[in-house]
Amino acid sequence: MIQLSKNYSLPERAAEFIPIKIISVGGAGLNALDRIVLDGLERAEVVAINTDVQSLASSVAAHKVQLGRSVTRGLGAGGDPELGYQAAVESADEIREALADARMIFVCAGLGGGTGSGAAPYVAQLAHEAGALVVAFATLPFSFEGKRRNAQAREALTRLNEVANGVICFENDKMGDIVAPQAGIHQAFATADITISQSVRSVVNLIQRPGLIRIGFDDLLAALRSPNGRCLFGFGESDSDNRAHEALTQALKNPLMDRGRMLADAARVLVQVAGGPGMTLSEVEILMQELGRHISEQTQILFGAAVDGRLGDRLSVTIVSSLRADEDFISQQSQPTQSSAPAMPPVWEQPHEISPEIEIESEPMPMEVFQPAEMTPFKESAPSETVPPPRVEPIPAFNKPEPIVSTPHKKPAPIKEEKPSAEKSAQAKQEVLQFEPVTRGRFEKSEPTIVEGEDLDVPTYLRKKIKVK
Amino acid sequence: MASNNLMIGLEIGTSKICVVVGESRPDGTVKILGVGQTPSRGVRKGEIVDFETAMKCVHEAVVDAEQKSDVMIRSVYVAIAGSHLKSFNNRGCVMLPEDRDEIDEQDVEDVKINAREVSIPAQNAFLHSIIQHYHVDGQNGVLNPIGMLGQKLEADFHIIHGLRTRIQNTIRCVKELPLDVEDVVFGGLASAQVILTQHQKDLGALVIDIGGGTTDYILYADGAVKQSGCIAIGGDHITNDISMGLRIPMARSEKLKIEEGSCVLGNCFPGEMILLKDDSGFAGKEIERETLNTIIHLRLQETFELLKRRLEKEPFINYLGAGICITGGCSLLNGIDHLATEIFEMPAHVAHAQTTSGVTSAVENPQFSTAIGLIKYAQAVQTDRPPRGIGRIFGKFFSGRR
Prior knowledge:
By secondary structure, chain A is an alpha/beta fold.
């Protein structure tokens, strides 16, 4: 007799452990690494690499490598990438040792300084030679740090792009947008660290998590693959009732995401949705549907889903994508930041930072597609807002709706990629419209249905005075 | 002759005009040969408000049906709706002459006339006198008194009447085409013919036919019609409510109602949004699903409660062994059966015509219950007593008009 096992459930998938190492190079990298370690990361080893012994000593990383014992003698590289590179070359063996046995290596560095700019590409190269897959997390300096630093950073970034399999690049200027202007500068830097930490952890999770629909390294690389690209990255997590929506909103709020607008032009978007056992299919559906509105139809979606008991009630969304590099990227870098920018949502800062021509270049689709539909009904009432940006100096035109806009903004309204000025002013205008309190609408001209003294043609919610909004 | 067996039902509804061509089979079943329909214009709340437009639509629907069924349509059974329709139960009584004690057909006819000798408003006309039960010398529950012996014959009738002019308007609309009107039938009565089986009628059942402009209801208990009527609330009201509540155009609301609407509350995630794509003249909008459902829920809840209050004026609602059948286009709304179950506190389900063969896809839609019911009704009338159908009562309509 054949015994059939009634237990049809598959054996728990053995958490396939991929050895991952996170290598931080330079002072900024160390700060980020500290944050990563403090935030807690169980599934990867961390290594701190720096020229500066003092900062190394204060790092919480377990494994530390000092660069250039003879070149810099325990001091920093002094903002000279050449020195940083030489120091790294001197300590190449130690670095190799630190990199050994990892199948995947994340290199974190703050570009612009000496060690970060000089040593990080070299470390990445060594990692590559060691046969690991390399993803670099790099930060670009604030614009106020000077053109020289910016130039060094971009040069380093170019080299990183050559050696690493993927580069996720953070612009500090963008980070500044999410920090309240009153907040101290340390907070701005801390935000940058937090963002990097979050990204690193979510990418590690992305790969380590046993997924229902697994995201592999190949998917990640595919999402990041665009020549000299600009990385879009978003991560959101929520445990509220409406977590699917909130997590996505949060992910799109990420400074690297530009409120999801950039996604419209991306060729490939990687999305991983992870949640506790309570995550439902419909939640994922809602989320993907909502995300679908931010990306074009041609976009290839690399979708992953994972159930992780540790997440509990939380639901997390990770979005990774990249845009092809263009002048937009460069010119945004060269624009001076207005660090005294008023407390406006980041969306509104766009016109201040970049010239109107660039905006049109970078967002041709929304301009063409949405303008007629969005604007025609309001043409008479709001002529100043409807003027296309290139014609007038953008600042007065865009500043105008600001006080009205702040009200609808408080609601966690889902972000749209449409032209915000038209959209928002339209909403503001609509709120002025008052409908007659008692109206029968379609039945205005027909015989009223009066039953028990009530005109039943008037919507029930109006008669019962139930608010539907 | 095949043409004798052909029956055509015409429903001039608020949202659609629909013509069903059916064939009566010798075994008593009905075969649907074709269904023609057009979106309705010029009709509000089941009544014609724009004669010319409505006539054009009826013509289109008839032509459509003719093409689909390959039948020449000459005469139709027309369904009537509208809030002007009223009903009541009345008992007629005749005493047999001294020299005779066997009840014959003439006595049955007399008792019917007697039952209708009640005062209805002058401008109203009888639409149906539906026999419930006969009583012979106090003996209750007699179904067929012909041939029985007795002195006193009483009969309970359910009488449906409505405004003469409105009924005539509908008839005229068809006659101008020109088509003959075999009979006019209360829509709810027609629907019940295909929705309910005899068994359900005996057990007691309530049919609620929620159409575009009206909600027709008919209650059966003990195998007979006990209550019926029409409330001028329908799917249009829901659409209108959505349109006003969410401030979107009517056409959009209608689509939204059909595609996304549900009358069950708390069944969606808080904050779950529905995106309405932008269109010419309509900037896209995002609306909360719960808001939409709340609007629908409130309207339907009110309608059902109103209906319940009406039915509770008489005791029959407590004798519904077979529960509630909901039909009509609006019954396709998600969760409507749950809402009805909750409010009436008895099982309710969505039903559609079942006792037919032929074009089944047409039959399996609650939207066509009334039109198919008309055919079933026609079949019953024709086979029952060909020379004397209930339609004869209406003779005065047809003759008096011209």
